[in-house]
Amino acid sequence: MQETVLRLATALPGFLLGIVFHEWAHARVAKGFGDDTAERMGRLSMNPIVHYDLVGTIIFPMIGIMMGGTMFGWAKPVPVDPRRFKSINSGIFWVSFAGPLANVLVAILSAFFLAIIATQVTTDFGFNSILFKMLESSIYINIILAVFNLIPFPPLDGSKMVSTFLDYEQARKYEELQRFSFLFILLIWFTPILGYVMTPALMMGRGMANLFISLLG
Q1: Is 24 exposed, middle or buried (0-12, 13-18, 19+ CB in 10 A)?
Q2: Which of the four pLDDT bands, split at 50, 70 and 90, describes residue 197?
Q3: Stated pTM of the model
Q4: What is the DSSP letter of 55?
Q5: Which end of the chain has fewer CB atoms within 10 angstroms, the N or the C?
Q6: Contact 76, 53 (CB under 8 A)
Q7: Closest CA to 46 of 104, 90, 116, 102
Q8: Is 83 buried (19+), middle (13-18) or exposed (0-12) by CB count in 10 A?
Q9: Which residues contact 22 (CB under 8 A, 6 or more apart)?
Q10: What is d(CA 27, CA 42) in angstroms, rounded to the nearest whole number?
Q11: Sign, CA torsion 153/159/163/165
Q12: Whole-angstrom Cα distance, residue 22 to residue 73?
């Protein structure tokens, strides 16, 4: 139990920041393209409460922690009305890309601050170890969130980006795959498939942290 609580404490900050910033980025870029739907519904916010989803924000992440894995989940998707975009295809593409990009930025910032802890803070600082673990978890969690959401399977962000390059009929047939989305997620999450996708990305995250450490050391 103590180990589970420790994993939860070190993973939760990076996880919450990741899913909230992800949805905020969708809402902010949508507003930039002319759709203020999310803002009018109070979703252009970094407040975790307005983005909370029972399964994605609590149940699924807790299962991951209790099984000894990485905390993973999602927030409630922000409402977007592409009809209000100044340019529909560009709007859909960049609004969709904004979420994963936000997670990449969080991972980069986490790697930078981890490097500061590793090189500039003395080991006798009381919170050195816990901060290091929090930042390390944040790197991995946000890279996983970014890469996972870029998978081009509906309704993930990657599929919406791909759909902007398809004509209407192709996009309609492509979006019909969404009916199999739950099975698809189970397939890649409980088989080695996801590992093949994530391993190179996680190695890049580790390499990014080492790069910052070498620059600051």
Answers
A1: buried
A2: confident
A3: 0.92
A4: I
A5: N
A6: yes
A7: 102
A8: exposed
A9: 75, 99, 100, 102, 103, 145, 149
A10: 10
A11: negative
A12: 12
186 contacts: CB under 8 Å, gap ≥ 6 = none
What are the DSSP E strand ranges found in the chain? none
- Cβ-contact 103, 22 below 8 angstroms: yes
Average pLDDT, the chain: 92
CA distance 195 to 216: 31
In this predicted structure, what is the pLDDT of residue 144?
92
Mean pLDDT in residue range 139-156: 94
According to the model, what pLDDT value does residue 185 have? 79
Omega prior to 155 cis, within 30 of 0: yes
- CA-based R_g, the chain, Å: 18
16: tokens are 């919450």
Predicted local confidence at residue 198, as pLDDT: 82
Among residues 3, 23, 39, 175, which one is catalytic?
A: 23
23 is annotated as an active-site residue:
yes
Give the closest residue to 15 by CA, choosing from 55, 77, 78, 58.
58
> What integer pLDDT is reported at residue 64 of this predicted model?
84
pLDDT at position 58 is 93
Judge whether 39 and 111 are in contact, CB under 8 Å. Answer: no
**Tokens standing for 182?**
């739950």
3-state secondary structure 56-80: HHHHHHHHHHHCCCCCCCCCCCCCC
